[in-house]
Specification:
Blueprint (H helix, E strand, L loop, with lengths): L13 H7 L2 H4 L3 H17 L5 H17 L14 H13 L12 H38 L3 E6 L2 E7 H26 L1 E2 L15 H7 L4 E2 L3 H6 L2 H28 L6 E2 L18 H24 L14 H24 L1 E2 L1 H7 L7 H9 L5 H18 L8 H7 L13 H6 L9 H25 L1
Parallel strand pairs: 3-4
Antiparallel strand pairs: 1-2, 5-6
Helix pairs in contact: 3-4, 3-8, 4-5, 6-7, 6-12, 6-18, 7-10, 7-18, 10-11, 10-12, 11-12, 14-15
Length: 466
């Protein structure tokens, strides 16, 4: 029996009925639907709608459904319109007509809004744990890199030497901002729509504060029309995930570049790579390439969500059924991807000697050379020009800055002296970046310690929500 069939004389067109069903998609919400139904049942008993024995029967029936759901075949139902209809069918089948009382004072509009908020909240909590794992592996690799050096790039051209650890910590910072966005999103998602009815609020005197507390929400939503028609929390979550996936895509692209023979900075881990069916010598960065592609997919989910709601009048419209799939897809894409990128990062090998050799050529000590002149009173713009001329002379001669004679340097500026050469060494170039956020070894050591504190705090919050 349909949950709405009383007003209708004709049966639905069978093809339309199959086409408009959401159960094949929203059955993943079953656990949340059961949790919300238990809270609603207790609220009905408190409001005097259910007798104590009826509440006990309904709770027993809901628990039975949860146990049976462990068998995948249990969820194969060609008649259930959605997860709400499925639960009602199973409940009545288990405990009889008392099961029909569970829907007193509520609407599927508020049910799906509640289930999706519970789903979003659970997804955020799982994602926060996985991002913490990812950040921890990056920090561990940064510590293991010690004082290993590599080129940093701007415009994909060699710019300055940095510690490998400093480079890895840049991704820790990106991921940290992702966790903050998710935490902020969780605050707005953690409101309870139950008691909103179809559009105007419940018709029974339900204790919405108690329902919210029962489900671990911070408080009830404050407007029934907004609560049933709102998907801001889903849009916000998927937008945050699109940025997280963008960060992972940037990481993947760098790793692809650095794994090529032209760079040769890393060796692709075989456990996360595949070969070519035609070219026997190939080892392809499949995980990395799919990570880039998954970012496009999640960004598409974010776009679909926003466009899907942009023209909807208040409050609930069937269009909102289409907001489920982008939410599920984006969340589950990242939940599957994060453990894989963490495993890849744990397994990858860095070629530190090659990275260091690359950091010692290509005039990446030129800014240090200009700084040497600035410290001797030369205006920076003039120092910049004079070091640029020194670079041009080196290009003509086929040498590096430290290979120019002191006489050649003094022709450009008499402020050059013998101690200039010591300022061009790799340790000296790193050391001048001794500011918060810089690549000087002492600063990077402090940044690693602070990153560990952030990860510990993130895990503490995640455990509190568990």
């Amino acid at each position: 029996m349909k949950m709405w069939s009383g007003r209708f004389r004709q049966r639905l067109d069978p093809e339309f009925e199959r086409w408009q069903r959401s159960f094949p998609l929203d059955r993943r919400l079953l656990g949340h639907e059961l949790e919300a139904s238990r809270a609603h049942a207790r609220a009905l008993q408190r409001a005097g709608i259910l007798l104590a024995e009826e509440l006990a029967s309904i709770l027993f029936g809901l628990d039975q459904i949860a146990e049976r759901a462990a068998a995948p075949s249990f969820l194969e139902d060609d008649e259930a319109e959605d997860v709400h209809h499925f639960v009602e069918k199973q409940l009545v089948s288990t405990i009889g007509d008392t099961g029909y009382k569970l829907h007193s004072g509520r609407s599927r509009n508020e049910q799906i809004a509640t289930d999706l908020r519970l789903y979003a909240r659970a997804s955020i909590d799982q994602l926060q744990e996985l991002i913490a794992d990812w950040m921890e592996i990056l920090v561990t690799r940064a510590e293991r890199a010690g004082n290993a050096v590599m080129p940093a790039y701007t415009h994909l051209q060699r710019a300055e030497p940095v510690l490998v650890a400093h480079w890895l910590l840049a991704y820790v910072e990106m991921s940290g901002r992702d966790t903050e966005r998710l935490a902020d999103c969780r605050k707005r998602a953690n409101l309870c729509p139950l008691g909103s009815g179809a559009v105007a609020g419940a018709t029974l005197a339900l204790d919405r504060e108690a329902i919210a507390h029962d489900l671990g929400f911070d408080r009830p939503t404050v407007n029934s029309m907004d609560a049933t028609g709102d998907r801001d929390f889903a849009i916000e979550l998927v937008n945050a995930l699109s940025l997280l996936s963008t960060h992972l895509s940037r990481w993947a692209e760098e790793m692809i570049l650095f794994s090529t023979p032209e760079f040769g900075f890393i060796q692709l881990p075989e456990a996360y790579s595949t070969g070519s069916s035609a070219l026997p010598q190939k080892k392809n960065p499949d995980l990395l390439e799919l990570t880039r592609a998954k970012a496009a997919r999640v960004i598409g989910d974010a776009t679909a969500l926003q466009i899907g709601v942009k023209g909807l009048p208040l409050a609930y419209n069937k269009d909102l059924q289409e907001t489920q799939e982008p939410l599920f897809d984006a969340s589950e894409t990242l939940l599957a991807l994060l453990p894989l990128v963490s495993g890849w990062m744990k397994a990858v090998d860095f070629d530190y000697p090659r990275m260091q050799a690359a950091a010692q050529s290509g005039f990446m000590n030129a800014w240090a050379a200009a700084t040497y002149l600035v410290e001797r009173g030369v205006p920076f713009r003039l120092a910049h020009e004079q070091v640029g001329k020194a670079v041009q002379r080196c290009l003509d001669k086929g040498c590096e800055l430290e290979e120019l004679s002191l006489n050649e340097l003094k022709e450009l500026n008499p402020a050059f002296d013998q101690d200039f050469y010591s300022r061009l060494t790799l340790p000296a170039v790193l050391a001048i970046h001794d500011v918060v956020g810089g690549t000087a070894p002492a600063q990077v050591k402090q940044a690693i310690a602070e990153a560990k504190q952030k990860i510990a705090a993130l895990r503490g919050v995640a455990h509190a929500h568990a």
